[in-house]
Amino acid sequence: MPPLPFKLAAVDLDGTLLATDKTISDKNVQAIKKLEEAGLTVLIASGREHLNCIRYHRQLELKSPIVSFQGALVKHPGTGEVLLSLGLDQDLAYEILEQSQLFETNVLYGSEKGVYATSRNKWTELYERVTGEAAHIIDSWENLDAGTAIKIQWLDEPARVYHMLERLENRILRDCQVWSYDSIAIEFVRQGVTKATGVAAVADHLGIKASECITFGDAENDAAMLSWAGLGIAMPHGRDAAKEAANMVAPPGHPDTALARGIDLVFEKYSKTPTS
Questions:
Q1: Would residue 69 count as lying in a domain?
Q2: What element of type H or E holds 85?
Q3: Residues 212, 241, 128, 257: what is their CA dihedral angle, to the nearest 10 degrees?
Q4: Is residue 179 included in any domain, yes or no?
Q5: Is the pTM of this model over 0.70?
Q6: Residues 228 and 200 in one domain
Q7: Direct distance between the N- and C-terminal alpha carbons of the chain, in angstroms, rounded to an integer
Q8: CA-based angle 184:164:169, to the nearest 5?
Q9: Across the strands, what pairs with 42?
Q10: CA 122, CA 127: separation in Å to the nearest integer?
Q11: Is residue 49, in this structure, part of any structural domain at all?
Q12: Is residue 173 left, alpha or beta, with left meaning phi > 0 and alpha meaning psi from -120 to 50?
């Protein structure tokens, strides 16, 4: 395998590695293997919780830590070693929960132990359908024993999501990194935390420079790591923010194999035939 001038590749899950049915296409699996054969450390970098990323990590037989919760947690699923954990301040987490009750919206509380909710409804069912993981249903937030919140989500109808975004408390806006997805979700993590934060922690741990990293993504929450890396590649079906942050866009084609085409593009542009 011709060598590349890169040592680490970080890959987003939804919309990048995963197909529309949340599986990994055979072409994407083989493309990941191609990166590893070229000597790169490959890692998952996702907005999802850590536990929800593990099955994909195992399917690909990766040996790296997982970057999860939008970059707020970097943890090795095999050893349990935590390289980075940037949870929400406890008082701030309580404030987010209290404001969610004022809005009467639906909440998912994410920690290293999993995701928690106070009722089973269409929103928890949506979460479970998309992620394939069950939420822990508890009686009330007062009885919560889940550890530090790393990410809190509000899920609701688009009109209500817009209403809530317009009326967020100043402290929440000041102290949280706020993301909104598909008009039905608002996510809160610690201010300043992005996937670039998590990927950089892995790179530093391995003694790898940003210029030696490749990142692949499709959405607004991938933009920071796409612009941080020496080479950022956006998916052709991705959001404008991702494409604008990236150095290159993968060739057009079916979304389920866009990552594989992006990885082929890397080898086409950057592989170097060894000289004797």
A1: yes
A2: strand 82-85
A3: -60
A4: yes
A5: yes
A6: yes
A7: 15
A8: 135
A9: 9
A10: 9
A11: yes
A12: alpha
